[in-house]
Amino acid sequence: MLRKSLGLLCVIMVLGSMAFGQSFVFHHEFGTNSDYGPPYALAADSSGGIYNVTFDSTNSRAVYIANPLSDTPTSQVITTASDFPVSRGLQGIAVDSSGNVYASGDTGGATWVKKFGAAPSFTEDSGFTIGSTTRLLGCDLLSDNVLGCVSFAGIEFFNTSNGTQTAAVTGGVNYQRDLAFNSSNNDLYTAYNNSTGSNSCSLWSGGTPASPASYSFTKADLVTIGSVASLGSQGIEYDARNGRLLIANKTDQRLDIYTISGSGSGASVNLFQSIDGADSTGGNIGSIGDSVAIDKGTYTLLFITDMTGRILVYSDGAITEVDEWSLYY
To answer: For 272-294, how does the pLDDT look when each residue is reduced to its tens digit (9 = 90+)?
Structure first.
């Protein structure tokens, strides 16, 4: 995440002029190492790698996948839940423009966030420590200097140099799970997942990366998914290239993609596309976790986690990548 959406530095040859506003089409999927648990939260770096947090309270790991477009991607464990004083596994992951990795772990009542250097060493930064008394879950970078993490009803902001808390805002919907930053207007979106309410995406506005304390809870129901008895949403992502909001819909086990109009209290969304995996090699998504959209300049790559043990790859453009493998409409 410098957020989750970052431009990749690779050589491409475009097979046709691609316009904005096209739908995503399935191109590839790969399984994840079963030793690492079910794939859950995602992030990406500027070199083409993706980062996956696995959901497993006893064996949760943050994993680096160096070549996610190959038929046989390789992976490297960055850290495990046992490296944190946590009991409910790792929950969130973010990557800044220098490749530094931020991973959050949940105890059920408090949270630890750790920082690791860039690939391939992933050396832990001993000068960075977040040991919050608040239960924090998903996270996103508002800038290379500001990390935001959702609590169950608020958002806390931290200095990425040393982990010092710089601001905290409250008043949101309980059971927030993830956070996404809209770099075009500074709005923040939080995903909600609980069986006691129906609104699944909320909006916070009024702040900026330089002034995070000014954020306030603005809309509880920017997106509504399911009924009162549903689990609603899980992961949330902002696709900066297309200006769209991507929400992991746990009620219907699909990724819902929304166009965004306006900002703050005037913001509204419209459903653009839903991806349920029916067009994929393995069929329908069994348990959606998160997504990450990667700006390739002339097209967007989209990765989606299915917590049954695979990551699906979609694209909204026809391209050939040198030294990788071809993606075709």
So the answer is: 999 999 999 999 999 999 999 99
Phi (first) and psi of residue 264, to 5 degrees: 55, -140
Closest CA to 291 of 270, 306, 276: 306
Percentage of the chain surpassing pLDDT 90?
53
Structure-token match 């070199």, residue found? 47
Q: Please report the pLDDT score of residue 305 as a whole number.
A: 93
Q: Are residues 199 and 192 in contact, defined by beta-carbon separation less than 8 angstroms? A: yes
How many domains does the chain contain in total?
1
- Amino acid symbol at 179: L
**Full domain range(s) for residue 296:** 12-327
What is the C-alpha separation between 211 and 215, in angstroms, rounded? 8
Residue 1 lies in a domain: no
Greatest distance between any 2 Cα atoms in the chain: 52
pLDDT over threshold 60, residue 3 = no
**Dihedral-angle region of residue 216 (phi above 0 means left; psi in -120 to 50 means alpha; beta otherwise):** beta
- CA 186, CA 140: separation in Å to the nearest integer? 13
User: Tens digit of pLDDT for each residue in 39-63?
Assistant: 888 999 988 899 998 876 667 889 9
Decide if 262 is inside a domain: yes
Residue 6 counted as domain residue: no
CATH number at residue 142: 2.120.10.30
With respect to residue 323, please indicate whether it lies within any of the assigned structural domains.
yes
